[in-house]
Amino acid sequence: MPNEIKSLNEECGVFGIWGSHPDDTASLIYHGLHSLQHRGQEGAGMVVTDDQRMMHRMRDLGLISNVFADQEQFKTLKGSIGVGHVRYATAGSHGLKNIQPFIFHLDNFTDFSLAHNGNLTNADTLKKQLQDKGAVFHSDSDSEILGQLIKISQKENFLDRLKEALQQIEGGFAFLLSTEDTLIAALDRNGFRPLVIGQREDGSYVIASETCALDQVHATYVRDVEPGEVVIINQDGITTDHFTTDTNLTICSMEYIYFARPDSVIRNVSVHEARKRMGALCAKENPVDADVVVGVQNSALSAAGGYAEGSGIPYDMGLIKNQYVARTFIEPTQEKRENGVSMKLSAVRSVVKDKRVVLVDDSIVRGTTIKYIVKLIRDAGAKEVHVRIGSPALKFPCFYGIDIQTTQELIAANHSVEEIKEIIDADSLGYLSVEGLIEAINLKSDNDYHGLCTAYFDGHYPTPLYDYQAEFDQKAEELGLYMEERKID
Ligand SMILES: O=P(O)(O)OC[C@H]1O[C@H](OP(=O)(O)OP(=O)(O)O)[C@H](O)[C@@H]1O
Ligand SMILES: NC(=O)CC[C@H](N)C(=O)O
Ligand SMILES: [Mg+2]
What is the Cα–Cα distance from 446 to 443, expressed in whole angstroms? Predict the structure, then answer.
């Protein structure tokens, strides 16, 4: 499995199109997926439905450029409806069988394809129930559950089957499906994952995980898909339906902090601007006398810019990133991770020598990256290194679609801020508060959660955890994690 050595692993990206010229569809999906590559690097695929209502698929392990290296093959993918996916596993193995989109055959109905970003929290329970009823699974990922539920539904039309299936699954999901003539999108009741609708000049519709994919295919943003919504696009145009109206928006705050591309806009909030505000508020909450602000590539550059603006301390490029870091075919070990950081980042001596440096990163997971960089900057002659993090301390895992490591591996679940400061050998360490994060993202939502899931920082999971609950409670107890005013038990 080609896997860049990263600490925070991505999730998945979905891209769908309806009504494009049959010769262009595969290429448009390719370009859309290319701009979503940061969301998943394990494998990719696309399904295109032709004028005879037949579905054609290409998928493989690896990056977009490898999977679709032979674009001559796009000639076999002609049609006006298509769905694409980039994967990073959250459930199930890393093999080809789990690379999406999946295709299902529904006797006497329609074939349909399916692509999923997110993680279902009651997948194990549902899978057992489905197998008891005779369902045969072709993958071991949670995403297949939705297709199997649609297959066994007794409802008479596809949309009713889909809605009945969506009502049974829990957790995080942004689904794209195509039938023989329709493109459909569905978002979970909390809207954990981003999903946007756009339209191209030729009238074709695009639905994608992030607006950067709309820009890539010259589509204009129309609107975000809403929690609990089912969007249907076919020859009647675009229509909306709901599988539930019992919704509560709590979009994943890590999308704004780390995962999404900074040029994307999620629910009318620019990711770059939100990160800048995180940095600026972090400066307000954690001021320090220093000479220069340095950001850790890739994802902390916006927050570092914000810290510089907020503090009045000049920003400079004290670190550079090697763009050609080797990829490895084995699972990262701690040693590999350390080597990976050292291959990836180097200090610019002229910027940090004899300076009091504020080093800004977006997050600390295990502490590997920041510990290494503090040393790098000290070795390059810095007088002091003050670490500032543009988000709160990560203490709790995610169950809704991002691969935040298990609680045991999260340094902040096991150590106080003072201890972490010692471990990483910083002169001082400051995190953004949860209140600061909410203010920085500034979603216009008046629910208890301010429209955001901040569970990774405060343990306030906005839903029950279903199949994950018992194990989580046990680990939290073992680690003595205290969930203040947990809102839902
Ligand atoms: O504490 P750690 O376990 O080292 O993890 C934290 C680091 O992981 C992420 O970056 P990553 O290197 O994954 O990718 P990036 O280049 O996109 O920032 C994040 O931005 C931090 O820099
Ligand atoms: N990261 C994701 O969104 C992954 C989707 C799905 N849970 C899988 O494991 O393939
Ligand atoms: Mg990073």
Answer: 9
ipTM for the whole predicted complex goes beyond 0.95? yes
For residues 29 and 164, give the distance between their C-alpha atoms in angstroms, rounded to a whole number.
Answer: 29
Residue 361 annotated as part of some ligand binding site: yes
Cα separation, 115 vs 99, in Å, equals: 9
pLDDT of residue 289: 98
Cβ of 366 closer than 6 Å to ligand 1, yes or no, is: yes
- Give catalytic status of residue 12 as yes or no: yes
H or E, element range at 246? none
**Residues 358 and 450 placed together within one structural domain of the fold:** yes
| pLDDT tens column, 399-454 | 998 877 577 789 999 999 999 999 999 999 999 999 999 999 999 888 889 999 99
Q: Which residue in the list 12, 212, 398, 453 is annotated as catalytic?
A: 12
Write down the pTM of the prediction.
0.95
Ligand 2 test: best mutation among 8, 98, 117, 210, most atoms within 8 Å of CB? Answer: 117
Confirm whether residue 362 is marked as ligand binding. yes
Can you give the CATH number for the domain in which 70 is found? Answer: 3.60.20.10
- pLDDT tens track for 106-127: 887 889 999 999 999 999 999 9
* CATH code of the domain covering residue 282: 3.40.50.2020
484 Cβ contact partners less than 8 Å away, ≥ 6 residues apart = 458, 459
Domain interval for residue 37 = 12-248
